[in-house]
Input
Amino acid sequence: MIMLTRISLLALFAACALVSGCSSLSSARQIREAELPITPTESSVSFSRTAQTDIATLGLTVDQLGDPASLESDPRIAGIPAAAQRSLLISEAWYLRGQNDLEVALPVSLERFLRAAHHAYEAIFAESGCDDPANQVCKDISVAYNRAVREVARLTHNGTLSPAPGETRYIVDLDADNDPLTLSEWNLVLSETASESSTGSLGAAGTGCQVVEVEVGTGKHTARQCLPLAFLVSFDERVRDDRARAHLAAFNTLERGEIRLHDRVVSLVTDGPGAWNEIFATGGQTLSCLGNAHPALPTVIFFTPNTHISYEWPVIGAAIANEPAMQEHYNFCAFDVSSSDAAARVNGVDAILGSLNAVMPGIKAPAQVILIAQGATGDAVVKNVKAALKSAVIGVPPSLSVAGTLLFPAPTSSGPDAVPVPISSTKELSRIGTVALGDIKRLLSRLVNEDDGMFGSLTRSSLHSSVTERLSPVM
Output
């Protein structure tokens, strides 16, 4: 028993001496980070299952996976029979390296994500690349491309800031082909999930919003328009070229769901619900509209709680606007009724007409509107509009014509401090929300009925906008 105690004490003294020695070493001279060379590593579990199979077959180590520049010239990678799988593995390695190296200069990080996008892009468009989006390898490659492009968008401030010449091996070009959006004119919010969930579709999905203003007889009016968009990076050179040009561009997916690249038509990723979340957030503007508004079409205006109070209305709005018949016949806008004085802020109908003019210059009176409201504030706004129209001067044509109204009771409140629960599907709507969706569909369908509807003869595809909208090179 005594021997055991002595042995334990000796071990304890040895441990204390070791701790003291380490403590004195660290206090005598602080080891600087530069003296600790860090070799990047990456576990294979971070890769797609497709890439994991090749990693296991080739026996690649975590050190090798963390060094994508060496992987590009590794003869074992060249031995993978399918070119698309080779590109996928290297693309994912570059992406993960960019994700894990946080303390690097921005151009260095940007080049890594550009490299990841470039390898995936080549796998998609090369002669032996992916021509079957349903193939699992091709699905993985489109995901690899889209997530890398999202990081490129983030690091270039949504395409508005490009690296200085010489800072990366890429020449970043903001003047791509196909007349995409002018990104400097839009406030862009990128989607967290839509880019990776859209099989075979390319781009980083997001929403672009801009505030527009107009001078009319009643003064200056502003409004906001929002649209879903896809952010793309395209390349003309191969990954083996020393210098390559990277084109940054964004496309309005309301107007075009696909584009032609390298003699191939590809679909663009889109986030329709994201645009509706932004529309109902209103951004401090009186009126926010879906960005394809046409002055000759009737406008549905929601006077309903915004996304800070309810996530139901973005889902309802998206469900209605996504129906082909509704797309063809209506514009869609949301009015900010988040404050208690919202009703007072509508001075007759001038504020609504002025905001509609900002979004649709040249709209002719009387502007046809359908008003949909929920809760006391929305109900009061609608009553103010109707009262103003009734009291209009005889002989003076009204500036608005209300084709229909729907009023819904306020949603059940969970308390003043309750945070609304995000939803993404009509299946998650409350009973009130489900009833509202059904009633709105019935009303709008009746108004565009070909036999007896007020707007049956007006369609978006048959009308030509009087305003040439150029949503041009990267914002």
The chain has a mean pLDDT of 82.
